[in-house]
Amino acid sequence: MKRYAFLLALPLLVGLTACHARRTAQKPDPLRNAYGTEVDWNNSDHLIPLDYEQSQGKRLFYIYCVWCHADSTPAGPSNRYNLTPTPHLMNDGAVLNSMSDQYLDNIITLGGSAMGKSAMMPPYGNTLTQAEIRHIIAYTRAIAEPPYHKPNRPLPQYKAR
After folding, report:
1. Do 76 and 82 touch, CB atoms closer than 8 A?
2. Of the given ranges (4-8, 30-34, 96-100, 110-114), which has the lowest mean pLDDT?
């Protein structure tokens, strides 16, 4: 009887050690807890994980912003190169990372001319809610190349008159 009890316990012992080995061998998947993803514009093999707010920003970007702030759209080429000056790509971290969230909020809300930028950037303050504008900024920060890192000290704030 004792011999058979050991044989019955053997699969349980093997199963526990194999299960533990599988758990520790797995690397954490950054996409596992993501609400959505965006294909990296510079490397199509890389997916950028997006949280809920960033995913909402992506949705709004593809409705309002893609025509001027991307090289291509789901419908084909963008209108970006027909504009003077040519608008920055939405993932252009070299330029946009140095701008505060408040500054980006003001450009989106008030338009380019109100902020001393191109008048070709229309004001979206009556079209988008403040939450939607924050979502777009969060999406911009998520896809930035080079990656955006929140500054240790606050960036200069720009207020509308």
Report:
1. no
2. 4-8
